[in-house]
Write a structure and sequence with these properties.
It is built from ten helices and eight strands. The longest helix is centred in the N-terminal third of the chain and has 25 residues. It is α+β, with helices and mostly antiparallel strands. The protein has two domains: 139 residues, Alpha-Beta Complex (FdhE-like fold), CATH 3.90.1670.10; 140 residues, no CATH class.
């Protein structure tokens, strides 16, 4: 991939050019109608399968993402079936439901069968540990006390974080939807539902431009966020907030901050309406490599810990 170039108008506050209007031809509505008939979890799976064939640099991660996402879909539907009518209503403040935790060994077995060799080995090791050790890992991540169990310097830190986040994510989605909390007040840099960092940004069509929002790295909640603000440190000086794009990923923006030296990727749905932000963010691995070579640090790693 060639070098990235500044997004025209992004650094100095000029209005982004309106995307070209393309007339619909016979057959072009097929993918759009198919996407509308799927749940958003099914769309993520279909998009991952599509991009795995399109981007060799991300194919291994995306092919692994597919069975993980299918498991997540099953876990979400199971939570809906068994916990939706539970009293009191489930929340992020409550301990993990036993009905969720008991499915963890099955998730580890799936990773053993489908994951890259190092991840599969780590899953096998964790599956062979005592049940209370597994519960301790999940509880620590759920309560945001992960450092107590996923300690810095421990071998396999990232693997354990992946197991906890990937397994608990569909339950977090379910809890968020049950809570029904609506964001209000100043633009928050953390998720208004579960207080985690955003994992990806989104630009959705609005008038002649796009409305920026952020997507939580854990519960996948989405909330509106001002265009010219760093979600890492709150920097508002547009001259310190460069945005870069690459020819290979024209709909994915690398939004950087020269104050805190962090970046987040934003998926521009005004340029590609069929993109799935969580999946397209994973697929654009070369953009991460480029940003990190420039001295930027990612605000929050994605589900695949990239």
């Amino acid at each position: 991939m060639g070098g990235l170039s500044p997004e025209k108008g992004s650094k100095y506050g000029r209005k982004l050019a309106t995307p070209d209007i393309v007339s619909l031809r016979v057959g072009t509505l097929g993918p759009i109608i198919a996407a509308m008939s799927q749940t958003f979890r099914q769309r993520r799976i279909a998009r991952a399968e599509e991009l795995a064939a399109q981007y060799p640099s991300a194919s291994e991660m995306l092919r692994f993402f597919v069975p993980v996402a299918r498991f997540q879909d099953e876990l979400y539907r199971a939570a809906q079936k068994t916990l939706k009518s539970q009293k009191p209503v489930v929340s992020f403040a409550q301990p993990l439901a036993a009905e969720v935790v008991e499915r963890f060994p099955g998730f580890l077995s799936l990773v053993e069968e489908t994951g890259p060799a190092p991840v599969a080995a780590a899953a096998r090791d964790l599956r062979n540990q005592a049940a209370n050790r597994q519960l301790q890992l999940l509880t620590a991540f759920w309560t945001r006390d992960g450092g107590r169990v996923i300690g810095v310097g421990d071998k396999g830190d990232g693997h354990r974080e992946f197991f906890a986040r990937a397994f608990l994510q569909p339950y977090a989605e379910f809890v968020r939807e049950q809570a029904g909390k609506q964001e209000a007040g100043p633009t928050p840099c953390l998720c208004p539902f579960c207080s985690r960092k955003p994992g990806v940004g989104v630009l959705r069509p609005l008038g002649d431009g796009g409305q920026r929002s952020l997507v939580c790295s854990f519960c996948l909640g989405e909330w509106e966020f001002r265009r010219i603000v760093c979600p890492g440190c709150g920097e508002e000086n547009h001259a310190k907030l460069p945005v870069y794009t690459a020819e290979e990923f024209q709909h994915v923006r690398v939004e950087c901050c020269d104050t805190c030296r962090r970046y987040i990727k934003t998926v521009d749905l005004t340029r590609n309406g069929l993109a799935e932000p969580v999946v397209d963010e994973i697929a654009s691995i070369p953009l991460d490599l480029w940003a990190q070579k420039q001295g930027y640090t990612k605000l929050q790693v994605n589900l695949m810990l990239l």
